[in-house]
Amino acid sequence: MRVRLPLPYNSCSLFLRKWCNELHQQVIVRKGLFTLLSLWENVTFDKLRIFADELTKKHYQMKKSTFLKVFGLLALIFVVSSCNKYEEGSNFSLITAKGRLANTWTIQTITYTTGSTTTTITGTTGTVTVNKDGTWSSSTTYTIFGQPVTDNDAGTWVLNSDKTQVIMTDNENGDVRTFAIIKLKNKELALTETDANGNVTRTDYTGS
Length: 208
Fold this sequence. Notes:
This protein is an alpha+beta fold. Helix content is about 35%, strand content about 35%. Helix 1 (about 10-20) packs antiparallel against helix 2.
């Protein structure tokens, strides 16, 4: 047995319009309202209850979807801005700085800048292996008076607090050297070292 709504047509219309406003006038709510009003003579309490349940469910689904999209966008902005710390990239990576730095790096170029003059250093080749456990080893070959000289070293390393510098300690003599990270990508690395006189040595590497 169907039960007719006891409210007059105008009163019910005002009630539903107020209800729609409370649901922020979503498009689906407005469409549902117009459909309901056009078929008002066939509406029962059961149909109205089902209709209300469906509207409420879709409304909160839309609110949840919107919240997740906004939250995801804010999280992405935060990640990108927090990773934008190296002059030449990478501006965004899902791999941590420590994870990217851990690799075997081959020297590509070395430049030396004093004042406004930059000179490319030739005759030096080698590799540096950086391990995730905080150790490193290197094999560097120099050309001195036309003769190759190979220097093998090993030690430990750490990143500074904001991961813009790598601090390397030599196991043999205890020397501590600090390098600024200019570029840190999966296969590309650039480090600079500044001496007491402000002269800068830059070394570019490619990863394995």
